[in-house]
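Friendly challenge for the regulars: who can give me the C-alpha cells for this chain first? No prize, just bragging rights.
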Amino acid sequence: MQNYQTAGPRKTTAIVFMITLLAMSTVSFISSIIQSSMLAGLEGNAPYSVMTDATALVVLFQSMANMLWVLAFIGFVIAFLMWLNRSYKNMLAADIQGLMHSPGWTVGWYFIPFANLVKPYVVMKETYLASIYADTPNWKGQKPPRLLPIWWVLFILGNIISSTNASSSFETVRDYQVDAVVVMISEPMTIVSGILLLIIMNRITKSQNNKLKPLSKTS
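First reply, four minutes later:
Bragging rights claimed.
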C-alpha cells in the first residue's frame, strides 16, 4: 500500500518554475508587439538583413527570452509531473475507490502521441474530483469546475498555435512578422492556462492535506 506524503514541496517547486514561465511569456508577448510594429513598414519578401539595428536587437531579445522560456518549461514539466505522480499516490494511500489509472500512467500519458491530447486531462479531472470530494461517497458523479476544461483547451491551443511557425527558416522579414503574430496569439493562452493550472494544483494539494492525509498511512 502507498504511504501518504504531502505533495506540497513538489507543488512549490513547480510554482517557482511556473512563475518564471509566466514572467518570460509576458516579456515575450510585449516584445512580439514591439517587434511587429517595427517590422510593419518593411517589405515582407525582403531579407532579414534589411532590418534596422534596433529591430534586430528586439528580435535578438525575443530569441533569448524564448531560450530562457524553454529552460524554465523543462524545469516545470519535471516538477509538475513529480507533483502529479505524488498526488495520485496519495489517493491510493487514502484508499480512494474507483480510480482508473496508476501513478506511472499519470506521467506516461503525456508522452503518448494523440492520447496526450485527451488522457492527461482525464487524469487531472480524476485527481481533482477524488481529492476535492474525498469525503463524498459519489466523488465520480461530481462535476469539475469550468476552470479545468478551460485550462486544458487553452494549453492545447496555445501549444498548437506556437508550433505552427517552428519550421520557419527565418530568412525574410515576413518570417519574423509571422512569428510575432504567432507569439501575440499563443502567449496569452499560455499565460491564462498557467495561472489556472496553479489554482488547480493548489486546490488539489490543500484538499489532500485536509481530507486524504487523515485517511492514509503516512511515512
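The longest helix spans residues 53-93. The CA atoms of residues 51 and 155 lie 33 Å apart. Your move, everyone else.
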